[in-house]
Amino acid sequence: MNYLNSPFFHTYVLPVLYGAIIVAVLPLLAGYIVLVERKVMADMQARLGPMRVGPHGLLQPIADALKLLIKEDIIPEKADRFLFWMAPVLSVGMALLAYAAIPFGPVFQVADLNVGLLFILAISSLGIYGIVLGGWASNSHYSLLGALRSAAQLVSYETAAGLGIVSALVWAGSLSMKAIVQAQYDRGIWFIAYVPVGFFIYLVGSIAETNRAPFDLPEAESELVAGYMTEYSGFRWALYFLGEYANMVVVAAVATTLFLGGWLRPFVRYHDHFPGTSIELLDILPTLLFLGAAAYCLRLTPRQPVKIQKMVMAAVAGLCVILAGVMLAALFAPPGVMAGIHGAFWFLAKVGAYIYAFLWFRFTFPRYRFDQLMRLGWRFLIPLALINVIGAATAIVLSEQWGLHPLPAALITSAATLGVAVWLASDGAKAPTTTAETAGGGD
Amino acid sequence: MLNAALFYFFAALAVVSAIAMVTRRNIVHAAVFLITALLATAGIFLQLQAQFLFVVQIILYVGGIMVLFIFVIMLVNLDVSLHLVQFNRQRFVAGVLAVILGVQVLGAFWVGRGSLKLGAARAMEPKNTEAVGQALFQQYMLPFEIASILLLVAMIGAVVMAKRRV
Prior knowledge:
Chain A is mainly α. Helix content of chain A is 69%, strand content 0%.
């Protein structure tokens, strides 16, 4: 027991352990996000989605991974071999490196850097080289055009997303991921309530940065085959895919930490206890959620057409019951363990909700044209983000020097920013919509 | 010990990639080596406990400026530049200039030889970012504003010159 408290264990062993867990779990997680994506898409289009491999397609990601591993690995004859080899590795490596500073709860974090947020932004901005160099090294026009579009898009939307982050940072007053969540705990509110416009800007910017629909022009299949990935096959292609989904989790984690309260549960300042115990009332929520999910699965079990599917549905219900038990048991564990488990639950739940919004947008909005994309970025989002930063700073002055309560101050400035947004949007609608003014080299 | 090892690793990486950057024929490879050199410089900043500079070096130079560099390089016809003669062979002038520069560098080393010893790294200062911010916005407010106005002028100038051709 003494060893578990030694500084050596906490500075070296634990971070390595956490890092190993992340690297091991992430590919599986990415595979299941793909499955969820296909299922959600199917549901929104009134289809069933993957059903064959495993019950309800539950083993589909594993089959896909196996297929990709044993596919032939083709390198174009005139490709730049070294860069062609390096680009996908760079894409995944940078995405994984960013996880070092993400706090999955108060305990589970590889390193709490003093400049944690900036570190994540810096590392994920390096991921673009995987796309750009891969597109160039393929020696193909489709790939090159995809890479060029990607570079232009990333540079445009990184600015807006960064300014959206700044508006939350002025409330947090720190760049350390833990300190940002702590600031939200101290104020007893998530920063999305203080800077809703900043959250919206970051949401749009993060979709564009991860090349997701409706901003997926770098890999627009109707125009560019598969964009920068056109010449890639097999395992290298899988690495690109993994990098893309890993990046989605990174931007979702940043949004969760900055705007959605990180690992804090809802109503974090409400401290009423169960009578006679030290367990808080609201800490029972995860258990109830899992029990509800189990009950839903059990209700669906008799409706399954085949016997094996009935069994699997019951097994899923059992899994939910086990998780509910874990959440319940955590309440009676030492406070550190309890905070770690429940924090990870709330953090992952919020990340999941954010990613679900990504999927939802993908199946709701049609793809933008390149000039529309550029106009939206430069003429709407960046001016709005600049005004929003000024608004957030004004709210700080109003609350800290004029003694106004922070929430009304933030709401007043947000309303003013929204007014400007409406004016900007109506101004943008009047602008000529011709394809002739296409920006960048994409077309 | 670890500090010195880290420093020499990053310094060697920076020097080697800088040399490679100048000697590569392929312009994209040259850009990649420039990126490596900038990253190695960022590593040296980190070794000196300047976390904020480390991150800003990566965000600005590697994540911003170099992306634009590569963007422009890709628009240029690479096949032409591959076959161009990249070096003017004026050995005499180059030799004289190299000797003069070498003497200058040696002179600078001789003058500053007292400060060449690697001291122990300063103790970690947790308020790195705040210190940079306060220095910029209080001590050096005027130069900071002048620099930003200069950049603004350059930006407006670029827009005006680009717009004229449309």
